[in-house]
Amino acid sequence: MLKAILFDLDGTLLPLDLEVFVHKYFESLGPFFAHKVEPKRFLKELMSATEAMIKNTGTLTNEEVFMGKFLPAVERGKEEMYPMFEEFYSNKFPQLKEYAGHSALAEKIVGQAVVKGYKVVLATNPIFPEMATRHRMEWAGVDQIDWELVTTYENSRFSKPNPLYFSEVCSKLDVLPQECLMVGNDVQEDLVAGTIEMQTYLVTDCLIDRGTSNYQPDYRGSLQELYEFICQIPNLTQFDK
User: Which residues pair with residue 109 across a beta bridge?
Assistant: First the structure.
């Protein structure tokens, strides 16, 4: 029986063109830190540290892997850079909202799952700090949802498309993969959940498919069709009576 539903954020609950958004994100980062690190060097080391984080083997959190790689590379200390990152995500990052869309369906979809008694997880790729994730949740209109778990780089030890990311979520929720549905728009990063026997739902509104895998979803459709799907799944609360 299905007990938990994992929802991707970017391109799924939060409509956006990921390439454009990431480009604008990088475009704002470099100048902000320019008085500390030359922008080209900053972005080069940022991308290198992000790659290291995606390859995390689980010994450290994603944050520890990222900062352990990034800070020495730019020859700056934690006490100097952490306040600047906090300032960036508090004041500069929110301006990127203009490059994201909004769908009223997002809150309705997740809200319906909660009402029906399912554990809900915001299974966004945990390569961003919590502050950045909370902003994007607000843009999507899902920041007031009673989430069981929101994955961020502070609380995660793996990233998509590593199947161990999904296993880690299951462990934290105390559920089996077979009791979960992963909902996302990225064929390579989200449908990999199927390799550990999670059910998968591919959202097609902002579909990403790099053509490098043969993963097939159990279900697929638009956000509207996902809402109709969630409305039709069993109500778990009736089993508690």
Answer: none
